[in-house]
Write a structure and sequence with these properties.
The protein is α+β, with helices and mostly antiparallel strands. 21% of the residues lie in helices and 24% in strands.
């Protein structure tokens, strides 16, 4: 976005919209009878967080998920569904809701930073700061967050909204599915 603004200068759009925000995303089900591999479920959850965090941190002010509600017919490969055949939420929908919970009404504090495969989208406002963190290098165990060393007002949540330190974990692995590092007074 920054490059576009620099190139077009005063003629750059005041806001940028993404109207086709889901091409090639999985529309997998949580249901065990569907026998969806865990990696596919994680891909859906990763998209559900990253599509919003990456887009908004990059300066796009509005994004529309294309074909997100095809629930009354057979699944069409390549289209994303936020609801399953019986209207139960899919991993994409659950992760999108968690992302909205954490970053809604916050402002990005800059573009997504990339550090050796790790990406960080930072948001702030209303006295809180949220870092959405993921790692695309795909080397399991490469990056971890020590949950025991966090300040008292900081918590780490997974893409489904689970507070990881409350689960008794000592550390959280940063992988393709983003984590939310939330700093808020009074936590």
């Amino acid at each position: 976005m920054e490059r576009m603004k620099n190139t077009w200068g005063e003629y750059a759009a005041g806001e940028i919209w993404n109207t086709e925000g889901n091409m090639g995303t999985p529309d997998k089900s949580f249901y065990s009878f569907a026998k969806v591999p865990r990696e596919e479920l994680e891909r859906g959850a990763a998209f559900g967080v990253r599509c919003w965090a990456d887009t908004f941190a990059s300066g796009v002010s509005k994004m529309f998920l294309y074909a997100g509600f095809n629930t009354d017919g057979p699944r069409v490969h390549g289209l994303m569904n936020l609801a399953d055949y019986d209207r139960a939420v899919t991993p994409i929908a659950a992760a999108s809701a968690v992302t909205a919970y954490f970053i809604d009404a916050l402002e990005p504090t800059g573009p997504v930073r990339a550090v050796g495969g790790r990406k960080i989208a930072n948001f702030a406002g209303d006295g809180r700061r949220v870092a959405v963190v993921w790692d695309d290098v795909l080397q399991p165990g490469r990056t971890k967050i020590d949950l025991r060393s966090l300040p008292k007002d900081t918590r780490v949540y997974d893409a489904m909204g689970n507070e990881l330190s409350a689960c008794g974990l000592a550390e959280a692995e940063v992988g393709p599915v983003p984590l939310f590092v939330v700093k808020a007074p009074g936590m």
